[in-house]
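Below is one protein, fold included:
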Amino acid sequence: MSKLLFVTPPAHGHLNPVLPVMQELVQRGEQVLCLNNEEFRPQIEATGAHFRAYPPTILTAAAISQALADGNLSRPHLLMMRATEALAPFTMDVLTQEGCDLVVFDSLAIWGKIALKSLGLKGAATISHFVFDLASMNLSRREYVTMMTQFFAQLPRLLSQRRRLRRRFGRAYPSQQPLFPMRDQLNIVFTAPELQPKSSIVDDTFLFVGPSINPQLHTNGFPFEELRQKPIVYLSLGTVHHTHTAFYHTCFQAFAEFPAQFILSAGRQAKMVDLGPIPANFIVRPSVPQLDVLQVADVFITHGGINSVHEGLYYGVPLILIPHQFEQLLNARQVTARNAGLLIDDQVRHQPVTPDRLRQALQEVLANRTYAEGARKVQQVLRETGGFRQAADAIQAAL
């Protein structure tokens, strides 16, 4: 039996793909310890892994959501670098006490990379998103200018923080370019190679295992007996953007008279009183068992987060993608390139989505079988990957 340390950030989108991997390793007899904030203890301990809470820092799930609010990806990167000053020494202490054989760190967890390099330990990275370089982003001129403007606005802070980390941790500070995603000699990517765009960052150290989906980790009660009509349309904005209640009101206005059954996951922080009158053809819950609902859904209206994209297409559900930030827009384009979904990019262009636009999009996806056929083709590709079991195999091989 070996001992593994998983170093994860307090972000649902980065932790969720790792949970089935940890559970699989525990079931194979490995001893697994995972670091994260206290709020993630229940999900982690449900896998059978041991949990250790980070000390309080500026890095919280709420802080990451706020950093992503304007779509500037440099902000969460800066947040990770700032938190590293406290989290790297903490991680080193844990490793010294526990004597771990391998450190598996998330692509954002720079403190995990610094800790293992400082102690001369073996490492592996998990990457829960597509790996883009500038060429593979295929940006328009306007998008390129917007991205560069956002980056240069944060550049002085990024450079200042890099100097601080280099002074403190010396050669243990990663020298790789670009800094993110964090990488090592084994880089496990939770997508299919057929979906990954060509990128100069990807080399022989990258292993594409497909989506890490284990329905046993996502059980929750839901009144399926209340689903009385078809088609069934599922709506969710994920864990970062679910507080956008104005979008939910737009959905109510768009679909109140639409001949379909709608299921809305409004988010755990949602206050039902703020949603106002709910149309009769809507079932609204703070959270729903997404994997279960997707097995009966005909269309998935989503923000385009990578986990939601993978889960929807894993069950062959065509998507209507409404990205709220730049990375989600890039995800959406990977889907539309395979005719598995329809993109509404109004929100990412800072224009409100109108009820008419939503209705037209849903009518198009339901009427045009191209989308369902495209989703089924991607489903077949995703189902042929090894998922969390292949990831566990690779980690054990690295041991």
